[in-house]
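Narrative summary of target 7.
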Amino acid sequence: YINVCRLNQLKRVSSYLCIISNVTFQEEQLNNNGELHLRRHPQLKVKVVDGSSLAVAVVLNSIPKGTSQVVLRGRFSKVANSIALVLCEGGIQVVTLDEEDYKRLKAKLTPEAATNLVLSKSYNVSKTWLVGDGLSKDEQLKAPKGTLFIPYSQFPPRKVRKDCFYFNTPAMIAPKHVENVDSCENWLPRRVMSAWRIAGILHALEGWNEHECGDMILDTQKVWKASLKHGFCPLTKISAA
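Modeled conformation, tokenized:
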């Protein structure tokens, strides 16, 4: 499923952009995160953008300053992989409870950065959890009291803990000059847009002449700065169950 979004509402944009917005389209096992689509359509005249880079940037900037350790839970994905690599390389410990995820990540890290990747059998190791699809109720119940759940997935986890806090899925507040904006997803507040959709708009505004799909990840700092430059604002709302 491909959502073609017309960007004429932003006065500086008059082109069309192809945005991959369906979760199943991005599955690595299904079509290598959309790369198969490009192979089948090599003459495609629009850019295919899965939005992973901005989603990664939003999650990284949602982690409280001073955090030294995070728990990574939920189904492994392109976004989760990129977040974990950036954190480990930046000196922040990433704890995973899945041995396969641990092996996959460790293989991509330098020996120095790999020291920040931890395989644990205990859930009670950190109060900052980065979570994706597949996070179960039982896992949430094992988290320490006061845990902050930060989703890296397009869909939010079911909130089951009243003594913990839940951040929104990767998203940003739309620029003030963008009119007639309600909510991008029914679980997001008004005037808040999903990072995956914003990424397509930024791609067009900046005139980036490259696809973002498959294993491709753009410079997350560049994408984050571009979002701020064009008036998108970080979302800081945290809620309890």
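The CA atoms of residues 93 and 116 lie 4 Å apart.
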